[in-house]
Amino acid sequence: MSVETPWWDVAVIGAGAAGLVAAFRAAELGARTILLEKNKRPGVKILMSGGTRCNLTHDTDNRGIVEAYGAPGRFLHSALASLSVRASIQLFEAEGVFTKVEDTGKVFPESDRAVDVLEALLDRLGRSSAHLAVAEPVVAIVPSGERLLIDTAQRRIAARTVIVTTGGQSYPGSGTTGDGYRLASALGHSLIPPRPALVPLTTAVPWVRELKGITLPDVVLTVFDGAKKLAQRRGSLLFAHFGLTGPAALDVSRAVSGHSRPSSLFVAVDLLPEMREDQWLLAWRDELSAAGKKAMIGLLSRWIPLRIAETVLREAAIPADRRAAEHGKDERQRLAAVLKRLMIPLTGTLGFEKAEVTAGGVPLEEVDSRTMASKRCERLYFAGEVLDLDGPIGGYNFQAAWSTGWLAGTSAARRAAADAGASDVASISESTLQRNTELR
Fold first, then answer.
1. N or C terminus of the chain: which is more exposed, having fewer CB within 10 Å?
2. What are the beta bridge partners of residue 338?
3. 220 with 233: CB under 8 angstroms?
4. What share of the chain is helix, strand, coil (3-state, %, to 5)?
5. pLDDT tens profile 9-37
6. Is 152 helix (H, G, I), strand (E, B) or coil?
7. Which of the 8 DSSP states describes residue 386?
8. Stretch(es) of the chain classified as CATH 3.50.50.60
9. CA–CA gap between residue 221 and residue 375 (Å, rounded)
10. In percent, how much of the chain has pLDDT > 90?
11. Per CATH, which fold does 8-196+354-437 belong to?
């Protein structure tokens, strides 16, 4: 297979969120850049995200993004320094995609159209001089001296640097089928086993299915393995025919998908997170005293939705038509216990098909967080979901994609320039460089 000439300075593999940013950033810095995409069109997953609305970041500062990821968030310090939350928003607004902040802190385009986000990225890419090649899956990356050879289904090309931005395995219908893991492994990287994250939970409990369509706006959801707490999140919860979804369920799902026996786990739902159990018992006792002739179900439905109240009474073994005055101390304590810990045994998750992101992937310790460069293969870079870095729901994962893509594109372009020498790399005047980096 012959090698195409001239060489590319930067080859980016995967035209998703991170790849698009990495490609136009590298090209704007003067690097001859090619972006390879296996699908017939770029950014398919972007179009699917956020219910086709695209929650493109979160209304917080860089520190808030780092903290949301927990300990792994430290990896993002340099990436966020290169492209901050505010700079990311400015990037899209400069392309005409104005944003809005919802009560949850999620940042969406004002239009509620993910297609506007993708078109903004493609417009920027088009102006950057980067070359986009679609329907061209990458088969292998082969080191060869001071270059990397990239075998696609159609040809072999050479590049001074390569950025892998192939995503994970979530929403495989969008083309994210784990290709980056295979490429990384072949180049000496180990892998953290991929698993679904931000994915709905499943259960076989009949009454959960009967509650499908009911949303609880504020609960605390805790995953337990016996008496051991694995994960906890406060947020809204939606009952579905298969089990549980909504932000609270999605955010704890990585603890379920990562467990060796997910069917041994259960979740406890705190239906009254604003009150301690003893506080609610005092308030309930006062309410019973003032309405002794009323049925229990009517009183309880003042606190929680009627259909949930019916379930709670059934789980507490209390007749729904029991009058308040007939309500004994043992029943009050059982009721309080169920309200604060409504137990639901799990069977697992809906898997990668319904997962918004992937946990696992290329270990962070094998990548230089200051540049996104591989520590195992010279001239190789990573960005986005291919890394073992997954955040909570709310735009955090897109922010990580924009920022790591920007840093990887910057680093790869500069490495290519250093390797090639000034005579071989397109030069950039100081004014052009300033214009291209003013959003940093």
1. N
2. none
3. yes
4. 40, 25, 35
5. 999 999 999 999 999 999 999 999 999 99
6. strand
7. G
8. 8-196+354-437
9. 39
10. 82
11. FAD/NAD(P)-binding domain (3.50.50)
